[in-house]
Amino acid sequence: MYVALGRRLLGSVYARAPEVSESTCSGVTCATVDAVSAALVVAWASAFALVVAATVVHLRRAREECEHERDRLLAERRAFERFARRVESVEAVEPIGSNVGGGTATMSPAYDGDRLSAVASAYRETVMRVDHYASDYGEPLRENMAAELGPDVTTAVLDGQVLHPQLKVAILRKCREAHDHRKSVLRDVDDETADLEAAREELSRVESSVERLDDTPLLEKSFEDLRRDYETLGGLAADCEAVVDDRRATVADRDPSPDPDDGHEFHAYLYAPLDVSYPVLDAALSTLTAVRSARRRVLDSLTRRV
Predict the structure, then answer these.
(1) What are the pLDDT digits (tens) for 174-208?
(2) Is 112:162 a contact under the CB 8 Å cutoff?
(3) Helices 165-213 & 151-159 angle (0-180, nearest 10)
(4) How many whole angstroms separate alpha carbon 52 and alpha carbon 291?
(5) pLDDT tens for residues 111-125?
(6) Which pLDDT belongs to residue 197?
(7) What gap in Å lies between CA 121 and CA 113, rounded to an integer?
(8) Greatest alpha-carbon span in the chain
(9) 3-class DSSP assignment, residue 1
(10) What CA–CA distance (Å, rounded) separates 63 from 270?
(11) Paired residues of 107 in beta bridges
């Protein structure tokens, strides 16, 4: 859905402006035209500065969210490592063999809840002890354990009678899966952080290039100078388009589900505290729109000299 939205937004800003040709003017007409054009340039330069400021804020907040999420994932991964060590230290109870009718049958030993209680306590004191547990989860033991280790393992731990070897193996396997899931998401967060930095650098370069266009007052610029500004802005718009296209591909790769309400979209999860789920795409589209607007106003300045 968000990719399609981005594509619709792009449709309104990708339209090419018409080509321009040089013409001449003189006297009072040129002076009036230049005065109007100068005001237009000031207007678009100010508007562009506001867009850039908003873009910087968006990307900075997005970077902060990535860093916070990375800290949380590392804490949870370490918690599952500690939990696994605690479980490994609890000795499982082997089933008791007995002869029944000439054969051998296995029977569970009598109730031995101390070992299961030790597992439950270990879970509380590791996984549920991370600093952000209350704010991010706030779930009781049974609910959180079922979400992480599965309902069957949870029932066996909290309602069972004995920690037998098969259950211990199942607990450690589920623990490893929870650990590996954090590791996988952590890689995505690190990739997202790198993408944020790359986008910030590229959009900052576009910003600097646009600012340089305003170094010389418009009244001192020739028709050719303005034409070069127009072409430069076209190139900068193409650079923004490249950022948008790359980002759309990244979003499609990291958010493969077409359903934004399924609770598994990476960007919606990562940027939930923000007012946008795709800050890079939002920043690039905003910058692209501003560059296109600046280019149209330079074109207007040029055509007023015809």
Answers:
(1) 999 999 999 999 999 999 999 999 999 999 899 88
(2) yes
(3) 130
(4) 11
(5) 567 899 999 999 999
(6) 93
(7) 12
(8) 119
(9) coil
(10) 11
(11) 96
pLDDT value, residue 216: 62
CB 184 within 8 A of CB 266: no
Confidence of residue 305 (pLDDT cuts 50, 70, 90): low
Residue 77: other Cβ atoms inside 10 A = 19
Asked if residue 181 lies in contact with residue 76, where contact means CB atoms within 8 angstroms, the answer is no
Residues with Cβ within 8 Å of 191's Cβ and at least 6 positions away in sequence, in order, are: none
At 8-39, the pLDDT tens digits run: 223 333 333 334 333 334 443 344 444 444 44
Tokens for 292? Answer: 């296109």
Rounded (5°) CA angle 297-298-299: 85
Which residues, including other chains, have CB under 8 Å from residue 174's CB and lie 6 or more apart? 148, 149, 150, 153
> Are the C-beta atoms of residues 89 and 171 closer than 8 Å to each other?
no
Does pLDDT of 106 surpass 60?
no
Q: Find, among 209, 203, 206, the residue nearest to 279 by Cα.
A: 203
Torsion angle of C-alpha atoms 54, 55, 60, 62, degrees rounded to 10: 110
pTM: 0.72
